Amino acid sequence: MRVADVLDLASMPLAGPSYPKGPYRFVDREYMVISYETDPDIIRAQLPEPLEPIAQPVVHYEFIRMPDSSGFGKYTESGLVIPCLFNGEEMNFVAQMYLDDDPPIVAGREIWGFPKKSAEPKLEVVKDTLTGTLDYAGQRVAMGTMAYKHENLSRHPAKTAAALRKLQCLLKLIPDVDGKPKIAQLVGLHATEITVKGSWSGPARLHLIPHVNAPVADLPVLKVLGGRHFVADLTLPGGQVLLDYMKS
């Protein structure tokens, strides 16, 4: 294989790349997001400098079902997002993510720096309850429940679309061959081509269980603020480097 062919590969391995070139289109992507208050000192400890906490110590816990993702297939993920500030701009720092499909794990980590690990999340409707669970290494570490479609927000999709367009902030760390940092960046990513197909809100509950390798409970639930349930199509393009730690 010629050098030009090597450089044209989307990803490793050469004999069967883990993922194709982007951008990546998601159809009927379904979210349950439970927002809650936690300890502000823990939020401060979880945010890498120079990110700053917002005034309210809020965390968004997400369960996301992706039935149709270009290049990645069908999978579900779950994790924690912390609203924060960077140079005065509000954004969401993606702190932890757990999912059940190898291509988006590899692509997410290598391209943008999503903190993805392999686990067993699930999002489903059980009778009158939208239910999300996360199991890691055979142990339950998170369970979220929300009353199913109690308040319809579909007549006002702009607010949901704005939340999806909000800048995501990621800590991308890739070592060199000697184990020392090669890439250490804060990366920003905007979802594009967003079409909101349905949006609801309602009462919700969230239970987090301590686990050493899936430490979602390190951000304890002090007060649940509510749940949001929405379905949308969107595209993930490339990102932008907000800060290069190796040069700062």
In short:
By secondary structure, the protein is mostly beta strands. Helix content is 13%, strand content 54%.
Rg, rounded, reads: 18 Å
Structural class call reads mainly beta
Q: How much of the polypeptide forms β-strand, as a percent range?
A: over 45%
Low-confidence stretches: none
**Assembly state of the chains shown:** single chain
Sum up the overall morphology in one term: globular
The ordered string of helix (H) and strand (E) elements is: HEHEEEEHEEEEEHEEEEEE
Give a quick account of the main beta sheet: strands, pairing sense, barrel closure.
12 strands, mixed
Q: What is the mean predicted local confidence, pLDDT?
A: 96
Give the end-to-end Cα distance, rounded to a whole number of Å: 38 Å
Number of strands: 16
Number of helices: 4
Question: Helical residue percent?
Answer: 10-25%
What does this structure look like?
The protein is mainly beta and 248 residues long. Helices cover 13% and strands 54% of the residues. It is built from four helices and 16 strands. It has helices spanning 3-8, 40-46, 102-112, 157-165; strands at residues 24-37, 52-53, 58-69, 73-86, 89-99, 116-118, 120-126, 129-136, 139-147, 151-152, 168-175, 181-189, 192-202, 204-208, 223-236, 240-244. The strands form two sheets. Strands 1, 2, 3, 4, 5, 6, 10, 11, 12, 13, 15 and 16 form a twelve-stranded mixed sheet that branches. A four-stranded antiparallel sheet has the order 7-8-9-14, with no helix packed on it. The longest helix has 11 residues, at 102-112.
